[in-house]
Structures are given as C-alpha cells and as structure tokens.
Amino acid sequence: MSSLPVLVLNSGSSSIKFSVYEAGDGARTRLFEGAVDGIGTEFGEFWIKDAGGKKLVDQTPALPNRAVAFKLVADALHSGQFPAPAAIGHRMVSGGPTVLENQRITPPLIDEMESYTAFAPLHTPIAVYIMRQALEIFPGVPNFVILDTYFHRTMSEVAKHMPIPDEYAAMGVRRYGYHGISYESIIYQLQPSVPECLIVAHLGNGASISAIRNGRCLDTSMGLTPTGGIISGTRTGDIDPGVLLFILRQIAATAASAAEAADQLETVVSKRSGLLGVSGLSNDMRELREAIRTGNAKARLAVDKFCWTIARWIGSFVAELNGLDMLVFTGGIGENDIASRAEICAGLGALGIVLDPARNNVRGAAVISAENSPVTVRVIPPLEDLMIVNHVVRLLGE
Ligand code: AMP
C-alpha cells in the first residue's frame, strides 16, 4: 500500500479532536493534531499542532454550537495547508445492539446508530452529526466507524447478559463495555509480550476497568451505558437500582412529564454524581487533590470512594481471571495521579500487587511495581488515534 493521509475524528460531548496520520506499509506518522474544545461556551479553544508540537492554529473563538465548532475544523482541513484525507476514521462510543463491527459508513448506517442514542446519550448526537458532515464535505472519501464496544465483543454470554426480563434483553439491554479503543491500544503497545492475565484500568474523566486474557476481553466494568461500572468524574457507576427509583420518585413529584423526569434522572446519574456529586466541588482530580491538601473532608471521601471502588473491581477481576500477571494504569488520572495509583494499590499486596513508591513517583509511561512484586504494574498512555488508523487501514484493504 502506498502512503495515505488518514483523518481521525474523535468527538466528545463538548469537544472535537482530530489528527491526520500518514499511513503506509506498517509505518504510521502523525502529521498534525488539533481540537475544538468548549462547545456551547463563549470562550472556546481551537488549536492545531504539527508533529513537532508547534502550534499552527491557536484561537479562542465563541463556540455556540457543534455546527460552528465543526466548521472551524472543516475550513482548516480544506485550507490547503494540510493534506486532503484519503480515508476518515470516526471514533464511536456505541452503535447499539446491531452495529457492533467496525465498518464503512453509509447514510443508513448513521440513521441506525442514531436510533440507539439512548445507549450513549452524551456522545452519539455529536458523533452522528460529524459523520453526516464528513460524508458531505469530503465526497468520495471512505469514512469508517471505529467502535469502543468492538473490543468487548469477546465477553461471554454470562458476562454480557443482564438479570432482567427477556423482553428488555430483546431490545438490546445488555452489558457492552466502552473505552475499547484505549484497551486495544494498550494491548498493541504490549505486543509481542501480551501477558496471559492482564487488568487495565482506564481512569480518566470517564473511568472503566477491564479483565483481559491473552489479549481478549473477558470482562469490563461499564455496562449498557458509560454510566455503569466504577464511579467516575460525574457518573455514579454501578448503583443499587433502588436508588434510581428513590430519586425518580422525588423528581416525578414535580416533573411536567415522564420524559422530563427521565431526562432529569439521567442528568443526576451522568452529570451530577461521581467525584463531583460526592465532593460537591469538582469532577477534576487535580482540584480534588488540591482540596484534600487544605483538609476538605468531602473531597477526601470522594477520592477514597473512587480508589476503594477500583480496588474492589481489581479484586473481582483477579478472581475472574484466576490470576494476574500485569496491571496497567492509563487515562488522565491513571497516567498522572501518583496518589490515586498508590491509594488503589495500597491494600492489594495479598493479590501480588506491590508498588515501588520511588518508581511510582512519575507521570507517563513507566514500570511502577517493586522489584519483587509478583504482578508487574505499569503506566501506559493510550494511543487511541493510532488504533483508529490501524483499523481504517485494515478495512481499506478488505
Ligand atoms: P482524561 O479524561 O483521560 O483526559 O482525564 C481527565 C482526568 O485526569 C481529570 O480528572 C484530571 O484531573 C486528571 N488529571 C490530568 N492531569 C493530572 C495530574 N497531573 N494530576 C492528577 N490528575 C490529573
């Protein structure tokens, strides 16, 4: 295959990130990357950096909506300053129960994925908007959807199934798992020596953890939506269903309609809970660590709850894997928050997880376990865009 520029588009609820790679015969070179951040605000950010980190664009535009935000990206990509893409890869959190394979995007496929917005309500609306725009402004260029759920397709029926009446299971209500592109990128980086029993903790603003045997997903913490699993920045994680009913009854007493009550409940569990809900202060680990330093007890409780939950999941995954060779931390907190890694691992000596405090005192890629730790503990930053490019190149060749 000759060298091709591949554009990666990765949208979040308030941002659009993008990068262009030169891809050919096994070699992948990132040419540039950029982002529009702060969609829905008056003071957004728009930047593009070249491969050496030099800022080519650095603006603070008003970003009232996603249309304005994406137009900035599209105009920059069409300015002639950057190579026109030969293929485009779109990160997609969920394609619902029917779109589970990475594949070429067509207008009916976008409609199908959009019909499952309830599976990833914060992510799907902007992702499908960008897909439609990309098909229009890059006519003839093949676009591919690369799914976060794809990695988790190897989970067993027991792990996927939910203990609910069959009529709901038939609607696609089951455990899917997310952050899959991040997990794939960790395994990619561990090759050729992927350990048999591996746990990867992706701890960012959204957080999840996966049990992986021989490179294949055995189990993961997130379920039907990215709100399930471990507590994260603004999301509850798994919670007693009775709590949802209790809150729903409170909300329903004043809501104008059932739909409004459901929306309000969604806001509570997805945007107002987690570290933010418990601390009453912030969903940002840096701010919480700062507050802990000044003696804020609620911030302390929120972070303790976060670390405690993750330690419990690690314990259950060791049981499920029936052993553990390696634990990997990734994501913004996993890569940078030295204290969270120490606090999560502090009580896991019986599982063979022993950190070396000096080695753990780093940000970014490192081995952080003690010399005599039976389990190797590593920090590995994810390479999600590179994984998307790898999928696109594979699909182009099919
Ligand atoms: P992500 O969603 O992967 O970008 O991760 C965002 C989370 O990483 C936020 O909670 C940040 O506070 C946290 N984070 C980023 N840098 C640091 C740092 N240097 N120390 C502690 N937490 C950090």
Molecular structure report:
With 398 residues, this protein is of the alpha/beta class. The chain folds into two domains: 5-147, 2-Layer Sandwich (Nucleotidyltransferase, domain 5), CATH 3.30.420.40; 194-379, ATPase, nucleotide binding domain (Nucleotidyltransferase, domain 5, 2-Layer Sandwich), CATH 3.30.420.40. 38% of the residues lie in helices and 21% in strands. It has helices spanning 66-77, 107-114, 124-137, 157-160, 166-169, 180-190, 241-252, 258-271, 274-279, 285-293, 297-321, 331-336, 338-345, 357-360, 384-396; strands spanning 4-11, 15-24, 27-37, 45-50, 55-59, 87-92, 103-104, 143-147, 197-203, 207-213, 216-220, 326-330, 366-367, 376-379. The strands form two sheets. An eight-stranded mixed β-sheet has the order 5-4-3-2-1-6-8-7, sandwiched between helices. The protein has a six-stranded mixed β-sheet with strand order 11-10-9-12-14-13, sandwiched between helices. A hairpin with a 2-residue loop joins strand 10 (207-213) and strand 11 (216-220). Helix 6 crosses helix 15, helix 7 packs across helix 8 and helix 11 crosses helix 13. The longest helix has 25 residues, at 297-321. The protein starts with a strand and ends with a helix. The model has no long low-confidence stretch (mean pLDDT 96). Bound molecules: adenosine monophosphate (AMP). Adenosine monophosphate binds at residues 204-205, 233, 284-286, 331-333, 336-337.
